[in-house]
C-alpha cells in the first residue's frame, strides 16, 4: 500500500499577516508496485466487542445485542482474533481472547447466550478489561466496538478519564448508543480519545446491521500506527490541527512534541482506497512584501517495531504580497471545510438552545446550519435538519422550529453533525 499527500492553500498573505491555513488530502492506495508493505509486523487483527449488560438493557435490548454479537462472531474471518467484554458496574471477560476458529466461535456463542442483564453502568471498568486483552497482542491491528443504552454513572467520571488515557494509542473504539437514554457527549468523548466514531441506533432491531457495518470497516483496515508529523520553523506554532473529512475530529489536544519545532498527531488505522482531509493553521512570524518561507512540512510516519518510515510528505508555503487580488483569495477547500466546521458548531449550539427553551437562538443557529448545509451540498446533514425544523427557504436559512420532535431525531442530528461532505464535483 502507498500513501499520497496533497496540500491545498492560498500561499499569498498580505503584509503583516501571520496565519497560514492549508488543507492536506491524504489517500491510501493499494499497489502491487509497493516494494515493502507498510503496517503491522505480522498482519494480525484483534477485534474486541464491549457490550453494556446493565439493568437498563434488560428485555428487547439485551436480546437484540446478544443476537448481534452472535452474528458478529459468526462473520469473523478465521484468521482474526477476538474477545467479548460485558459490563455493568463491573466488567466481565465473557469470551477470552481467541482465534476465530469454528470451535472457538461455538464456545463464544454459548457464552454470549448465557449473558444476563443487571447492575449499573461504569464504562471505565469495561475499557480497562478490554485494554488487558489488547495489550496481549501489541503488534496486531486493534479495534473495538462499544455498545451502551444508558448514561455512565457520575461517580465513574474520573476513573473513565484515567482509563481513556491508558487506552489511548493502544486500540481504536467505535461507540454506539441504542435507544435514547444515553448521552451523546459521553460517547463522543470516548470515541474521540480512541479515534473512533459515534452514532445512534434508534431501535434494538437495527443493532445487527450496524454491527455488520462496523465489522466490515474494521476488517478492511490493513495499516496501523500511522501519525501526522508537522514541522514548523523557529518562532512558528501550530494553532490547530484537525481532521475535516469524512468527519470532523479535533486533533489539536492529541499532539505530542517529538522534538523542537516538530509535533505529531495520531491518525489511527487505514484501509486501502481510503482518503481523509486535514486542516492545519500555523502562526508564523510576519514577513515583508516579497518574503517567502516554508511555513510547515507535514509528513505521514508509519512506525513498525520502533522503526519509522516516512510514507508521504507535503509542504506548506507562505509568500507575502501587496497584491490584494492574490492575498484576499481564499482557497476553496479551506473555505469549504471552514464552513463545514461552522455547520457542525451551529447545529450543536442550536440544539443546546432548543433544549433550554431558547427558541429565538435555536431558530437562528439551526437556520444558519440549513444555509451552510445547502451551500456546501451536504445533503445528508440537510436531511437530518429537516427532522427538527421546517425549511421555508434553504439558501437564506429561513426556518421554523418544529413543535414536536422525536428524541431520536434530535440525537441523530447531534451525533452526526460532524460528518462532512467534500466539495461538489460541479464546482
Can you tell me about this structure?
- With 427 residues, the protein is α/β, with parallel strands linked by helices.
- The protein is built from eleven helices and 19 strands.
- The strands form four sheets. The chain has a six-stranded mixed sheet. Strands 6-5-4-7-8-9 form a six-stranded mixed sheet, with helices on both faces.
- Helix 1 runs parallel beside helix 6 (207-220) and helix 8 packs antiparallel against helix 9.
- The longest helix is centred in the C-terminal third of the chain and has 24 residues, at 332-355.
- The radius of gyration is 23 Å and the shape is globular.
- The two termini are 31 Å apart.
- Mean pLDDT is 94; it is low at 31-41.
Number of helices: 11
| Beta strands, count | 19
Shape: globular
Query: What is the string of SSEs from the N terminus onward?
Result: EEEEHEEHHEHEHEHEEEEEEEEHHHHEEH
Radius of gyration from the alpha-carbon trace, in angstroms: 23 Å
> Which class best fits the helix and strand makeup?
alpha/beta
Tell me the distance between the termini: 31 Å
Q: What proportion of the residues is helical, as a percent range? A: 25-40%
pLDDT < 50 runs, ≥5 residues: 31-41
Proportion in β-strands:
25-35%
Characterize the largest beta sheet: strand count, sense, and whether it forms a barrel.
Answer: 6 strands, mixed
Strand order of the largest sheet: 2-17-16-10-14-13
Amino acid at each position: 500500500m502507498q500513501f499520497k499527500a496533497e496540500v491545498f492553500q492560498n500561499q499569498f498573505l498580505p503584509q503583516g499577516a501571520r496565519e497560514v491555513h492549508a488543507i492536506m488530502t491524504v489517500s491510501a492506495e493499494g499497489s502491487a508496485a509497493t516494494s515493502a508493505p507498510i503496517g503491522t509486523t505480522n498482519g494480525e487483527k484483534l477485534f474486541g466487542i464491549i457490550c453494556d449488560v446493565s439493568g437498563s438493557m434488560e428485555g428487547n435490548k439485551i436480546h437484540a445485542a446478544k443476537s448481534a454479537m452472535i452474528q458478529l462472531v459468526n462473520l469473523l474471518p478465521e484468521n482474526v482474533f477476538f474477545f467479548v467484554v460485558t459490563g455493568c458496574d463491573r466488567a466481565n471477560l465473557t469470551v477470552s481472547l481467541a482465534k476465530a476458529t469454528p470451535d472457538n466461535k461455538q464456545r463464544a456463542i454459548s457464552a454470549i447466550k448465557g449473558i444476563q442483564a443487571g447492575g449499573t453502568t461504569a464504562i471505565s471498568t469495561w475499557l480497562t478489561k478490554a485494554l488487558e486483552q489488547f495489550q496481549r497482542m501489541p503488534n496486531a491491528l486493534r479495534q473495538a466496538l462499544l455498545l451502551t443504552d444508558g448514561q455512565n454513572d457520575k461517580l465513574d467520571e474520573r476513573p473513565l478519564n484515567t482509563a481513556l488515557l491508558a487506552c489511548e494509542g493502544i486500540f481504536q473504539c467505535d461507540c454506539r448508543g441504542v435507544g435514547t437514554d444515553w448521552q451523546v457527549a459521553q460517547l463522543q468523548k470516548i470515541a474521540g480519545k480512541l479515534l473512533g466514531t459515534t452514532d445512534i441506533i434508534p431501535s434494538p432491531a437495527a443493532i445487527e446491521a450496524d454491527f455488520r457495518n462496523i465489522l466490515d470497516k474494521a476488517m478492511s483496515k490493513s495499516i496501523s500506527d500511522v501519525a501526522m508529523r508537522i514541522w514548523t520553523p523557529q518562532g512558528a506554532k501550530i494553532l490547530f490541527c484537525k481532521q475535516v473529512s469524512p468527519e470532523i475530529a479535533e486533533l489539536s489536544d492529541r499532539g505530542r512534541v517529538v522534538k523542537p519545532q516538530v509535533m505529531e498527531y495520531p491518525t489511527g488505522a487505514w484501509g486501502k482506497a481510503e482518503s481523509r482531509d486535514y486542516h492545519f493553521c500555523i502562526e508564523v512570524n510576519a514577513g515583508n512584501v516579497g518574503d517567502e518561507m516554508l511555513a510547515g512540512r507535514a509528513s505521514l510516519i508509519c512506525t513498525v517495531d520502533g522503526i519509522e518510515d516516512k510514507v508521504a510528505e507535503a509542504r506548506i508555503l507562505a509568500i507575502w504580497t501587496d497584491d490584494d487580488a492574490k492575498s484576499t483569495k481564499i482557497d476553496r477547500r479551506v473555505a469549504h471545510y471552514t464552513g463545514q466546521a461552522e455547520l457542525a458548531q451551529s447545529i450543536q449550539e442550536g440544539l443546546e438552545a432548543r433544549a433550554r427553551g431558547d427558541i429565538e437562538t435555536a431558530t437562528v443557529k439551526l437556520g444558519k446550519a440549513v444555509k451552510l448545509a445547502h451551500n456546501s451540498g451536504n445533503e445528508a446533514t440537510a436531511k437530518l435538519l429537516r427532522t427538527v425544523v421546517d425549511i421555508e427557504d434553504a439558501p437564506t436559512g429561513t426556518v421554523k422550529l418544529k413543535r414536536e420532535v422525536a428524541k431520536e431525531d434530535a440525537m441523530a442530528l447531534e451525533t452526526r453533525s460532524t460528518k462532512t461532505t467534500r466539495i461538489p464535483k460541479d464546482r
